[in-house]
Amino acid sequence: MRYHTVIIGAGMSGLAAGIRLAYYQKPVCILERHTTIGGLNSFYRLRARNHDVGLHAVTNFAAPGTRTGPLAKLLKQLRLRWDDFALKPQCGSAVAFPGKRLRFTNDFSVLVEEVASEFPQQIDGFRKLVATIEGFDELNLNQQVVSAMQVVSEHISDPLLVDMLFCPLMFYGSATPRDMDFNQFVVMFKSIFKEGFGRPFEGVRQILKSLTRHYKELGGELKLRHGVREIKIENGRAVGVILDDGREIEADNVLSTVGSVETFRLCGGALAGKTVPGDHGAVEQFQHGQISFNESISILDCQPRELGHGETIIFYNDSERFTYDVPTEPCDLRSGIICSPNNFQYDEGQQLEDGIVRITALANPDYWMNLPPDEYAAAKAVWGTKIIDSAVRFMPEFRSHVVDTDIFTPKTIHRFTGHLKGAVYGAPRKILTGDMPAEHLFLAGTDQGFLGIIGSMLSGITIANNQLLRE
Amino acid sequence: MVPADIRKVILNILERIAPDEDLSNLDDSKPFREQMELDSMDFLDIVMELRKLYRVQIPEADYPNLISMDSTVTYLTPLLKDVPA
User: Fold this and answer.
1) What is the CATH number of domain B3-18+31-80?
2) Relative orientation angle of helices A108-118 and A123-134, to the nearest 10 degrees
3) Residues of B numbered 4-33 whose beta carbons fall under 8 angstroms of chain A's beta carbons: which are they?
């Protein structure tokens, strides 16, 4: 069997690309090394409870019937209905820094009012920044990298407000330490502050279920436990893949969603000395990402709201400046994200049975990847406790209500995504066009550069449309 | 196919692309964009659906012909005249 396209990775971008190709009757096969689908945004079951891996919230929330914006675009392209994802809106979130707190909801005017009351000197600059963001075309795939720190600082002079605006956007999408490409900043600003958060009642499962059901109905093939060992390159073009067990699969095109550096490696020496299209330099100079996280998941004997915790997500930082970088310690205890999946506006009478508090903090991937197996579990527990102890300074006390916990580390993320060092947001340099240094080989997903859950699906769609469905 | 058949084909495609749009009041002489939310991705989809259904190739230079229902039907009539309805 020779496929039109083999897709490496059954995450959001691979599934979305697969749907587009299958819809247009192209023979397509998705290969996934892991035992389950989802990649970074996956799920697992532990001690009779369902857990999500990546997803805290789906960004780019839009109410049913919304006809514009990324979510509407995505649903149209995948021929899905709004109910297939059934996103329920957040209850309200906050950025909590020393002495200041900015609340935001899915109504952007709330954030504008908060900035006006907490930072009255800065509101005019903030409004100008918003105008710049609104006028920016983030979907243009041919743009130069511009420092977001520089652009934002031109409008806002108070470093505290700069940090508070960057904090959620970096935590939820930046592969670059200490700064972001302005394009990525705009994508994240719109998706988090302007559009906001939502979550299906069943979590990421609901989205993945809809995608796979649709993909299979359209005739797409999906193979789990099928790791790709090598992408076959002949005369400068991709002709198929070799599986971990040595079997070969032929294809006219290979679409990789496993990361840029990871994809180069799968090509063996075939790409040595080749240049990455779009002014990125030689393959050898390409860097993989370093930003990764630990997350502690606490199951409570009550709803978080009963303890006075009503926010959907709190982004916190205890220091004068917010530092988004690889920590020297195993985890950075100064800042983090508190997320409670209970705190969404579910339908009347619907609520998750367990109370859940997820706390996420920056982690040092080398420490966690290299830890001897007999020390791993103990280190996870120690740092899990430290992360929680740090976070309770920004939320009501819940530690006596914990009945079960689980913790994941960069090592866990590596297992689900295959990303080197468990880099959650992939490589700092994105390849927006999806072009790779071999013909008929393309890139989608995290390292293509559309961010978030909706963004990752749009990534697969865009590369399928632009590169694989043009005839 | 005669123009009336082609109009039905286009309506079906639009319904698939935008299931939430109400197409019952579509004015055939007015641009689609003025009456419903269609972006460049959606126009490309109309082209791809036509290729999938009838193997008809529409070069990029001809895309402006797809601006309204009337212009689309006029453009497609000679291309689809031998296709059975």
Assistant:
1) 1.10.1200
2) 150
3) 16-21
Q: Which residues in chain B touch residue A72, judged by CB atoms under 8 angstroms apart?
A: 37
Residue from the list B17, B42, B52 with its beta carbon closest to the beta carbon of A25 = B52
Q: What range does the domain containing A276 cover?
A: 2-52+203-288+425-468
C-alpha dist (Å) from residue A175 to A179, A335, A423? 9, 17, 8
pLDDT in tens, A386-444: 999 999 999 999 999 999 999 999 999 998 888 888 899 999 889 999 999 999 999 99
- Helical residues (DSSP H) of A156-295, grouped into ranges: 159-171, 182-189, 204-217, 260-266
Residue in A25, A73, A79 nearest the CB of B16:
A79
User: Which value does ipTM take for this structure?
Assistant: 0.86
Contacts of A24 in chain B (CB under 8 A): 48, 52
Q: How far is B20 from chain A (nearest CA, A)?
A: 7
- The nearest alpha carbon in chain A to B52 belongs to A24
Candidates A155, A146, A160; CA nearest to A95 is A160
Domain boundaries, chain B: 3-18+31-80
Among residues A336, A417, A425, A353, which one has the least CA distance to residue A50?
A353
Is the pLDDT at A278 greater than 90? The verdict is no
Contact A471 B16 (CB under 8 A): no
